[in-house]
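Entry 12.
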Amino acid sequence: MSAFHSRWLVAVGIAVSLVLGGCNSSKSVRAASTMPDKDRKPAPEFELKDADGKTVRLSDYKGKVVLLDFWATWCGPCKIEIPWFIDFERKYKDRGFAVIGVSMDEEGWTVVKPFVSELAINYRILQGSDATAQLYGGVEALPTTFLIDRDGRIAATHVGLAGKDDFEDGIKLLMARPSAGLPGRFVPAVLFGAN
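Predicted 3D structure (tokens):
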């Protein structure tokens, strides 16, 4: 076997592992279904800017089921999931559901805005940071996606590429249940050591 052929096989193997496991992933842990109510923890509150410079808080989505996706423009598995999220936003936005994308691109809006335009992303995109990722347990791989129930609790976590049906089944399940009206919907960021 030639050296070129060996390098090519290694490159293909790495590409396949990234697609299946997520970008920058040292592990791939997926929750294919939602957690029982008793095991759900409150989603940490955040304040991030959207493309128009408007401040967006997770608490702005109170009472909705939220798909919170940490992603980047360079991430192959993210590019696979984004069209699914566009579809979910279109299908379920009038039923108490919202997708929020948190870009982890270091280059910021200069790369994110053209990407959002090119893909015609129809949901809210925010610019994240390492501090935001730390609130959610230190996002170690992209994509990392959280399904948040109507009471602001994390019901499922997907690290790396997950199946479209896994997401949609969780969304439908969470939308079918009304809010329990739990107090303390979102955990303030200061409790997680953020400024």
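Annotation: The CA atoms of residues 135 and 192 lie 6 Å apart. Residues 2-21, 24-32, 183-195 have pLDDT under 50 and may be disordered.
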